[in-house]
Design brief:
The protein is α+β, with helices and mostly antiparallel strands. It is built from 9 helices and 18 strands.
């Protein structure tokens, strides 16, 4: 269990909170480039760390991120005109640049103008490999972008989508470092193996990798600190006595990775950035990178269908309004009891929807003082400790959190490995966990 004081520290992310201050040290994936496709196009509402913001692509193609309320009288800049390198408020015509400078206040007489004295809240943005990153931290000169392999291969943009959760970021994040739940929550009954959606063909190496997790419902979990955060192995014993290890990282402050099959030539890597919208809503960036060949448009469409088989609700202009799934708490995630009896352990289609169902069922913010954790929760326990320690070190001593100024720490891959019983999984997988191939140092 976790003391209530620690639970509050861990889950509260608004301005001025210790965890909110920690998260603001890092770059956050604010939008997909495709969501801001056209210069001078429609602005995009986003919400992160308790702040309502407006993203827009200026005439030059540069992305800006401003507080939603116009500094003049508070009208929403979402209603504004995106024109000539700025966002113009429709109430009185005041215009704001991507850096928050006031470029024009046409309703004021020439002698009374004070453009240089008024600024909008603006956060720096950088765009790389299909992702718009935002820095909401205190530095005038932001740190470098993290060297994520999936974000640094211009000839191989990963499949990406946004994964919404109506719950606190930590209970969503914890589900992605919990390897033992896949033998239950994601189990199919008719074939005795694990699958994403019955009848849907995922890549062969993915199905083969997931089938290996059938060997025992209780994997042996070992977790260890790492410079980038934490690392764990979930080991299952095979029929021949060898052990199949799923070795997956957590990377500060909210990044997870899974996948990494046994064959490095056809490996597919998957990961998420569990970005808090506020204390009770999360908008993850989910990516899937295939190293041997980029995804085709047809494959991207199939992958989205696999991940969100029921599709999304009609899009709205609200934050995350394009990513609200049709299967949600209000309709019990389209739970099919007959499917539950005959095919799926939980009669809900797709891994993300199954995860959402249980994570959101805990309530907006779970009371961790009532938990009863066991050895299978070793990685969750370690990850919490790492985040709590980093938040306290920043708040009490001004210690820069891990990875902020060390972009190379993020050159990491998840791996799967078949090892002799009792082998040192960290040493045996060290080389394969290094993601140097194709990574460029420039681009920050």
């Amino acid at each position: 269990m976790l003391p209530l004081t620690d639970n509050e520290l861990l889950t509260r992310v608004g301005p001025g909170t210790p965890m909110g201050r920690l998260l603001r040290q890092y770059w956050m994936p604010a939008a997909l480039s495709s969501e801001l496709a056209e210069p001078d196009g429609a602005p995009l509402r986003v919400r992160f760390l308790g702040e309502d913001l407006i993203a827009f692509r200026a005439t030059s193609g540069r992305v800006g991120l401003l507080a939603e309320g116009c500094p003049h009288r508070g009208a929403s800049l979402y209603l504004g005109r995106n024109e000539e390198e700025g966002l113009r408020c429709v109430y009185h015509g005041w215009k704001w640049g991507h850096d928050g400078r006031c470029l024009d206040m046409p309703n004021e007489p020439p002698g009374c103008r004070f453009e240089g004295k008024v600024r909008a809240v603006a956060y720096p943005c950088r765009e790389r490999n299909g992702v718009v990153w935002a820095y909401m931290g205190p530095r005038a000169d932001p740190p470098p972008l993290p060297d994520f392999e999936w974000n640094m291969l211009p000839d191989n943009v990963p499949f990406m989508w946004r994964n919404y959760r109506a719950c606190n970021w930590m209970q969503a994040l914890e589900g992605d470092v919990d390897s033992s739940h896949i033998n239950f929550l994601h189990r199919t009954l008719d074939r005795g193996e694990l699958s994403t959606v019955p009848g849907t063909n995922m890549p062969g190496h993915w199905n083969a990798q997931m089938a290996l997790t059938r060997k025992g419902d209780a994997p042996r979990i070992e977790a260890a600190e790492a410079p980038f955060g934490a690392l764990y192995s979930a080991a299952r014993t095979m029929d021949d006595g060898r052990e199949y290890h799923r070795v997956h990282p957590f990377l500060f402050p909210f990044h997870t990775m899974v996948g990494g099959g046994l064959d490095a030539r056809t490996v597919s890597l998957n990961g998420k950035a569990w970005v808090p919208m506020d204390d009770t809503h999360t908008l993850a960036l989910e990516w899937q990178l295939r190293l041997d060949a980029p995804w085709t448009d047809a494959e991207r469409a199939e992958l989205l269908c696999v991940r969100v088989p029921h599709g999304f609700l009609p899009p709205s202009s609200a934050p995350a309004g394009a990513w609200m799934p049709r299967a949600h708490a209000g309709n019990d995630y389209l739970l099919d009891r007959e499917l539950q009896r005959s095919k799926l352990f939980l009669g809900v289609l797709s891994n993300p929807t199954q995860d959402a169902a249980v994570q959101e069922s805990m309530g907006p913010i779970i009371d961790r003082s009532k938990e009863h954790l066991g050895p299978a929760d070793a990685m969750i326990i370690l990850m919490r400790r790492r985040l709590l320690a980093a938040a306290r070190a920043l708040a009490e001593r001004g210690v820069t959190p891990p990875g902020v100024d060390e972009p190379a720490l993020y050159r990491v891959r998840p791996v799967g490995a078949m090892l002799p019983a009792g082998a040192d999984w960290r040493a045996a997988t060290d080389d394969r966990r290094r993601a140097f191939a194709g990574v460029r140092d420039e681009g920050n």
